[in-house]
TrEMBL record:
<feature type="domain" description="PPM-type phosphatase">
    <location>
        <begin position="2"/>
        <end position="240"/>
    </location>
</feature>
<dbReference type="InterPro" id="IPR036457">
    <property type="entry name" value="PPM-type-like_dom_sf"/>
</dbReference>
<dbReference type="InterPro" id="IPR001932">
    <property type="entry name" value="PPM-type_phosphatase-like_dom"/>
</dbReference>
<dbReference type="GO" id="GO:0004722">
    <property type="term" value="F:protein serine/threonine phosphatase activity"/>
</dbReference>
<dbReference type="Pfam" id="PF13672">
    <property type="entry name" value="PP2C_2"/>
</dbReference>
<dbReference type="InterPro" id="IPR015655">
    <property type="entry name" value="PP2C"/>
</dbReference>
<protein>
    <submittedName>
        <fullName>Stp1/IreP family PP2C-type Ser/Thr phosphatase</fullName>
    </submittedName>
</protein>
Amino acid sequence: MRIYSATDVGQKRKMNQDYVFASADPVGNLPNLFVVADGMGGHNAGDYASSHAVGIVVEEIREDADFNPVKVIRHAIESANTEIITQAQKDEKLRGMGTTMVAATIVGHYAYVANVGDSRLYVAGEQIQQITKDHSLVQEMVRMGELNAEEARNHPDKNIITRALGAERTVDVDFFDLKLEPGNVVLMCSDGLSNMVEDDRIGEIISDTDRDLQERGQALISEANRNGGKDNIAIVLIEPFANEVKKC
């Protein structure tokens, strides 16, 4: 397995409220763990929300005795949601903070993915596929047939999300599982990438095996910034089977 992760403040924001965690080594009973969070809130609140939520998730997973990856990740995200709400109630400067989160672990040939908000997980093979479904006002309108994809990309309300950690006392987490194939590349990202770069172009960049994973990651960030860089950018790239020996 090869991994590369990075965040970038972008071209317009003064503060980076995106946060990533990427470990190819075991975390608790999970064989690996990858998390992207995109915080929201004034001043330092968004930065705190994303980093604190990811920290809680990692710590909860380390301490969880369960071996079911979905149960382990769900419990960790629920704990992070409760903690974010508690901290916001204690500190006026943190009032109203929240964060998106997409988390994943790869067990053998299968990826188990959790999602709250509009940070995404893609898998690229012969073509790129978005696995997660955005919890956003505009994507809800797309799913209901009220907007097409192009209208959604340019809609003025595209940054309004309908779920986040810290928004409600209980958090509704979506889960996805998928079988990975040799040659697949997994991308997790905040909307600072997906709003700035078309999916097809993202797929071209991350499937370019002439460049190593770090070069592809930096190319994604450069492309987002070249297209305006209107938000912070967070990425995690994973080549699940990169180090496996092919059988003759």
